[in-house]
Structure formats: C-alpha cells, structure tokens
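Q: Got a minute? One more chain.
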Amino acid sequence: MWRILDFDSACFCAGKRIRRAKVMENTQDYQDYQDYRAEILGIVRSNASPGIMRNKLEDYHENDLADVFPDLSVAERRKLCRILNLDMLADIFEYIDEKQAAEYLDEMDVRKAAAILSRMETDAVVDVLRMIPKEKRALLLELMDDEARKDMAVIAAFDDEEIGSRMTTNYIEIRENLTVKQAMTELVSQAAKNDNISTIFMVTADHTFYGAMDLKDLITARQDTRLEDLIVTSYPYVYGHELIDDCIEKLKDYSENSIPILDNDNKLLGVITSQSIVDLVDDEMGEDYAMFAGLTAEEDLKEPLKESMKKRLPWLLVLLALGTVVS
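A: Always. Here it is, folded:
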C-alpha cells in the first residue's frame, strides 16, 4: 500500500526544524488523502489485536501516520505508541512539528520517549528538546544512549546562525586507504545505522576529510580497482562555524546530495543534506518577503490582517510614494 507522496517545504522561523507539508494537486488526490486518514483512524480505533494492528499500520507511510496524530486522543496516541516499534515511531516523529512532538513525547513513559529520541535524526532531536522544559530535558538526555548524546553535543555546540547547527551525523565515512572489498564491508556495517548512503565520505587515519565517492561507483567497481581512483578529492566542503548567511550562496551552487562540514582542524563533523540547503533557502526567502512587505520578523506574517495593516500601512505608503517619485 506504499504510495508516492508529493511534499512542499513549509517554512518555520530560523533555527527551527522544517516539516514537510503534503500538497494535494487535485480533488482526487485530496479524496485519496482523506481515505487514508479515515483508514488509519479506523485501524487505531478498532479492537484488533496488537499484532494485526501493527501489520496493518506498517503498510502506511510514516508521514500519513504522523498526520493523524492530532486527530487522536491522548489514550489513542498512547495505544499507537505501544503497538508500533521504536524505529517506526522515530520515523513518524521526524514528520511532526517539534512543538507538537514535544507534547506527544510528554504523554508517554519517559524511558520510551528517550528511546524514540535516540533513534531520530540528531538535528531534529536538538530542535525537539528545545521545546521541552529544562528539568524534563535533562532527564531525557540522561536516559538516551551514549552515541545519541555525543552526536547532539556536537550539533548543540554551534549557534543557530552557524551552518554547523543544521548538519546531521547521518552519513557514511570510510578510510581512504581501504580496498574496494574492505570499503564495501565497511559500508554495509555502517548502513545499518545511517541511511544517507548515496555519497560516501573519505577520511584519513586522523579523521581529516580526504574526499568523497559516489555509491554507484563503489558498487560497480571491480575488486582489484584502487579505491583512490574512485575518490573525488576536490569535493566541496564548509566549516561548521561559518555563518549561514556567508555560505548559503556557495552551498546553493552545488548539486551534491550532501556537503561535508568540518571543524577548524579539517576533521569531518557531519554533513548538510541538499534538503536542508533547500530549507535554508526557504527560510531566507521567507525573511526577504517579510522585509519586502515591511514586516519586522517572519512571525509577523501570522498576525491578523487588521493588526498587520495598522502597523505596516505607513511604511507601505512611504514606499509607494518613493516608488512613484523614482519612476
């Protein structure tokens, strides 16, 4: 029952996680969407056994399941979270706005909430934790696994204005001096945890960034091929402490799936994906539109029309007058 979904970027304030919004292209798409929602709600509210219910729900995309969370009662959400496995729940929470995600996590056992967070993308976890009260946040961090805590500490070390705050640790890295066979073995072992595998990043023995390699090149290479021949050593990169405003134009020029982010010693810290770059551009455009309309912040776009007009009309009239004079 898997289906192809169309998504469009929905902009939130800078520093917040971008959530995907479903776009209905025509009436039939919308009707299909409503049918899926009704089906999922029917399954959750049925008296089917947990095993049957899980099997049925696993046929749906995680985004569809995330969409019905607001329609469920607290008891129904708890029921759903008891039935689905942790990996699927983590995928579902990836599609939920961080503020809502924090509220839903607060409804469940704290250990289960920590387990879900441990399986989510690191940058998303950082955003969700910002929405949780300090004491509860400290408890969740204490209960999360060591690797997840370490990854979050790396990202949290950057200011919101720095590109490092938007990176993810979901990537594959391999030593540059391995054979093709050894590289394939290493890829398989890391792919169990990291699914961002289309580009493989190469590092030296001291973890210095060396270059990158396309997955398909590794798969199609003969075992006697030198790995060095497959590595692109001129692959683009940025430093984690670079300001987003300073490097966004450079990032937009690249057509790579992921761009590595390095520390000041040229060690590989993480990557920024092409989707995150698109999200950054969306943020930038949202701010530009707000400024063009005389708004002081992107949040002002949510103001009631009457209040917004009262505050901006003088400035808009001034701009109109200036435009008339110039023309």
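A: The CA atoms of residues 86 and 187 lie 24 Å apart.
Q: Perfect, thanks.
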